[in-house]
Design brief:
Thiol Ester Dehydrase, Chain A; seven-stranded antiparallel β-sheet
C-alpha cells in the first residue's frame, strides 16, 4: 500500500508541565527532544512498525542521527502546537533497523510494508544529518557513567540521555542567558550499564559558532556519539 504525503502527517497536542521548564523559564531543550522522539514512537505504532511490531520480526529501531533547529521555545503550560501558528522547531532524524540476535544493521525485504512509507527527498532540514568530526585536541573533557536511569528498554543508554549529558557539560550561567539554537548528534555505538564515557569538548571559535563534543567509551576508546551545539541569547 502506498500512502499520500498528507496521510503520513501526525498531529499531537503536548502541554509543557512545570517540571520540564528550565531555570530560564523556557522548556528544557532535551525535553523537547524527548517529545519529538516519543511522537515518532506513536507514529510508528499507528502504522504497525513500532517496538512490539518490530520485535515480532526479531528486529528493533535505533536512532542514528538527530538534527534540530529551535526557532522559538515554549514556556510552562504552553502547548507545542503554537497558538498563533509560529514555527517553533524543525528536526530531521535518521534511523537504523538492527537484528535482534546480532545487533547489526538489517535490511528489510522489498515487500515489507515499511517501504510504503518512504518519501524521497522530504526532510524538515536540508541536507540530512551528515558525519561529525572526531575531536583529537579537546579544550576540556568531562567523565560520565551510564546508570540505571540512563537505560532504555533495549538495556543501553537512551538516545535523549546523551543529549542530557551534553547539556550538563555547560554551567548554570550559560542557561541563565542563553539556550540551544541548533543541535546535531550522531550515535556511533551503544553504551551499557556501568560503562564510563569521556566527553571531549572543542570550544566554538570566531570562524565556527558550534561547540563540538565526542563521547569516548573508556573501555575500548570507541566513540559512543558525536555532537555539535550552537547557543543563542534568550
Amino acid at each position: 500500500m502506498n500512502y499520500r504525503e498528507s496521510d503520513l502527517i501526525l498531529r499531537l497536542d503536548n502541554k509543557i508541565p512545570s517540571y520540564d521548564v528550565s531555570l530560564n523559564g523556557q522548556t528544557k531543550f532535551y525535553t523537547l527532544c524527548n517529545i519529538l522522539l516519543d511522537s515518532a514512537a506513536v507514529h510508528a505504532n499507528k502504522f504497525r512498525f513500532g517496538y512490539h511490531d518490530m520485535r515480532k520480526e526479531n528486529v528493533y529501531w535505533v536512532l542514528s542521527r538527530f538534527h534540530i533547529i529551535m526557532h522559538e521555545y515554549p514556556s510552562m503550560d504552553d502547548r507545542i502546537l503554537s497558538a498563533d501558528d509560529k514555527l517553533l522547531t524543525t528536526a530531521t532524524t535518521a534511523w537504523l533497523i538492527l537484528d535482534g540476535n546480532t545487533g547489526r544493521p538489517k535490511k528489510m525485504p522489498e515487500n515489507n510494508s515499511l517501504h510504503s512509507f518512504h518519501i524521497d527527498d522530504l526532510h524538515a532540514i536540508e541536507p540530512v544529518p551528515d558525519k561529525l568530526p572526531k575531536i583529537t585536541e579537546p579544550d576540556r573533557h568531562r567523565p560520565v557513567f551510564a546508570r540505571y536511569s540512563d537505560l532504555d528498554i533495549n538495556k543501553h543508554v537512551n538516545a535523549v540521555k546523551y543529549i542530557e549529558w551534553v547539556q550538563d557539560c555547560y554551567p548554570q550561567e550559560i542557561y541563565e542567558k542563553q539556550n540551544v539554537k541548533e543541535f546535531q548528534i550522531n550515535y556511533q555505538s551503544e553504551t551499557r550499564y556501568g560503562e564510563e564515557v569521556q566527553i571531549r569538548i572543542r570550544n566554538a571559535s570566531r570562524t565556527d559558532p558550534f561547540e563540538y563534543l565526542e563521547g569516548i567509551r573508556a573501555s575500548d576508546e570507541n566513540a559512543a556519539f558525536r555532537a555539535r551545539v550552537r547557543f543563542r541569547a534568550l
